[in-house]
């Protein structure tokens, strides 16, 4: 009999040991003694899976900080090119001065010098930045370089806490698959991009929301999603897949709780700033609309290859339309698949669609997808292929910026090489999306469902029978479980509504 630590409390299933299911995990484990033995007690002793992953995450985060040492020591302060050739750029020290934190300006209320009239970040991220500025306890009389260094260190410490939260939440979301959190902890792009910007804060709130939903706490999920959306826009996208899955499972009451929590939390955070400093509050939204085509997007590839600029309003409209089409396709997939997709699968596809269609792809945006990829497709080979593409893009963007800022020296990567890096990023993300779609259409190939699980991250959706599905898709789809009393699923007719009874 498995020990209590080795059993899922929710589904009474043994804890999945990756070295027994994943060839890459088994090969990698040879570095630390080989795959786990048949009689090993993996839950015994002080080094539980979660504690091991926390230590690994802290170690990888520290390595990412070490990678920024050339910039910390001198490259941030000696011109643009050096921080690009060393691939150690970060927004954090530059915005400490550029957004008025060094001068004690109040975000959203005080106007800034230069083109950026107000802080262009959502309210909760602005608060995160301000708290870090309060904790930067260097005297004003110290050289600005030392103050910027301390501000970066304070932010790095706060972001490390966020990284630990993310790993713990991913490890606990799938109760019988705690080791999937190791994908996040060891992700090379995670370590390289963690301290470029403040995205980890929103990612941590989103990961905590996913954990709450997996425990059936719809209101807590909604509150955390509302807070995450107040820190970064992308978390609101999670409500779309949730609506479709709750519709198919007939759990719209749970979705309503989540939606109420999200709207209420977002309003509580935003309304005070909206009323006190309306011009500063709306800067993030106007900036997002007015921002030109930027690095990393396929829109930039088009303009560079054709030599013809595209009007920003045209790109905004086209991006929205593309996103609507892709989301409609994902919704159709969710409603017509033979077996209801897992929540994490749809969330990954929707956020990836947003990343792929957006007019900018900053290197740290990969942080949005890493926890979702670990939940949607926890296979080391595919995850590492995607990560290799993202690391290539990480190096490509800095080398290209080094090329464009080094004057006549042209040190770095020319435009054609940078375009290859962008294509690798796009293809890597599409590759992982294609595998997730295949897992949805062929659920027997889904690594999470190999042990008989249905949707460990689905909360109330886990094991629930279908109530609504497109005509032609077999039902029930939830792990071959019997439907509850009260009637079978509703089949939508050709006219678009439920058939008469």
What's the structural blueprint in terms of helices and strands?
Blueprint: H1 18-21, H2 23-28, H3 49-67, H4 69-73, H5 80-85, H6 91-98, H7 123-135, H8 144-173, H9 181-185, H10 188-193, H11 199-214, H12 218-229, H13 239-249, H14 252-276, H15 278-281, H16 283-290, H17 298-306, H18 312-336, H19 343-357, H20 366-376, H21 380-405, H22 415-441, E1 468-469, E2 490-491
Parallel strand pairs: 1-2
Helix pairs in contact: 3-8, 6-8, 7-8, 8-11, 11-12, 11-20, 12-14, 13-14, 13-18, 13-19, 18-19, 19-20, 19-22, 21-22
Beta-strand percent range: under 5%
Reading the helices and strands in chain order gives: HHHHHHHHHHHHHHHHHHHHHHEE
Tally of distinct domains: 1
Determine the fraction of residues in helical runs and give it as a percent range: 55-70%
Number of strands: 2
Distance N terminus to C terminus?
49 Å
Number of helices: 22
Radius of gyration: 23 Å
Mean pLDDT: 87
Write out the strand line-up for the largest beta sheet, numbering strands in chain order. Answer: 1-2
Class per helix and strand makeup: mainly alpha
Instruction: Please mark out the parts with pLDDT under 50 across 5 or more consecutive residues, or reply none.
Output: 1-11, 476-501
Overall body shape: globular
How would you characterize the largest beta sheet? 2 strands, parallel
């Amino acid at each position: 009999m498995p020990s209590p630590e080795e059993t899922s409390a929710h589904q009474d299933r043994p804890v999945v040991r990756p070295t027994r299911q994943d060839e890459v995990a088994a090969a990698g484990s040879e570095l630390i003694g080989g795959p786990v033995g048949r009689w090993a007690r993996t839950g015994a002793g002080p080094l539980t899976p979660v504690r091991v992953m926390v230590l690994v995450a802290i170690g990888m985060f520290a390595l990412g900080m070490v990678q920024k040492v050339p910039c910390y020591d001198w490259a941030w302060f000696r011109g643009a090119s050096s921080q690009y050739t060393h691939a150690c750029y970060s927004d954090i020290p530059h915005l400490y001065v550029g957004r008025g934190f060094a001068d004690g300006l109040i975000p959203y209320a005080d106007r800034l010098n230069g083109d950026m009239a107000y802080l262009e970040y959502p309210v909760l991220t602005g608060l995160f930045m301000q708290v870090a500025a309060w904790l930067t306890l260097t005297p004003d009389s110290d050289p600005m370089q030392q103050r910027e260094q301390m501000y970066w260190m304070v932010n790095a410490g706060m972001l490390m806490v966020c990284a630990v939260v993310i790993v713990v939440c991913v490890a606990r979301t799938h109760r019988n698959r705690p080791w999937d959190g190791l994908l996040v902890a060891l992700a090379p792009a995670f370590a390289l991009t963690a301290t470029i910007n403040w995205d980890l804060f929103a990612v941590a709130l989103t990961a905590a929301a996913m954990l709450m939903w997996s425990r059936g706490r719809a209101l807590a999920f909604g509150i955390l999603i509302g807070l995450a959306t107040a820190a970064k826009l992308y978390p609101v996208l999670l409500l779309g897949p949730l609506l479709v899955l709750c519709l198919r499972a007939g759990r719209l009451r749970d979705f309503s709780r989540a939606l109420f929590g999200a709207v209420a939390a977002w309003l509580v955070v935003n309304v005070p700033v909206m009323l006190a400093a309306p011009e500063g509050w709306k800067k993030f939204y106007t900036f997002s609309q007015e921002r030109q085509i930027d690095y990393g997007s396929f829109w930039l590839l088009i303009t560079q290859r054709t030599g013809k600029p595209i009007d920003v309003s045209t790109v905004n409209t086209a991006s929205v339309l593309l996103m609507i089409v892709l989301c409609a396709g994902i919704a159709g997939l969710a409603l017509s698949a033979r077996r209801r997709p897992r929540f994490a699968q749809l969330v990954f596809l929707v956020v990836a669609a947003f990343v792929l269609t957006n007019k900018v792809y900053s290197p740290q945006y990969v942080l949005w997808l890493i926890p979702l990829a670990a939940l949607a497709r926890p296979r080391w080979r595919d995850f590492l292929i995607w990560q290799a593409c993202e690391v290539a893009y990480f190096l490509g963007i800095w080398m290209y910026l080094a090329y464009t800022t080094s004057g006549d020296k042209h040190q770095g990567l020319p435009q054609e090489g940078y375009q290859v890096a962008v294509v690798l990023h796009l293809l890597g993300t599409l590759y992982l999306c294609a595998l997730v779609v295949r897992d949805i259409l062929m659920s027997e190939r889904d690594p999470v469902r190999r042990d008989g699980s249905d949707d460990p991250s689905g909360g109330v959706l886990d094991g629930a029978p279908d109530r609504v599905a497109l005509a032609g898709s077999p039902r029930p789809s939830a792990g071959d479980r019997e439907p509850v009393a009260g009637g079978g699923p509703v089949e939508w007719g050709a006219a678009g509504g439920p058939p008469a009874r």
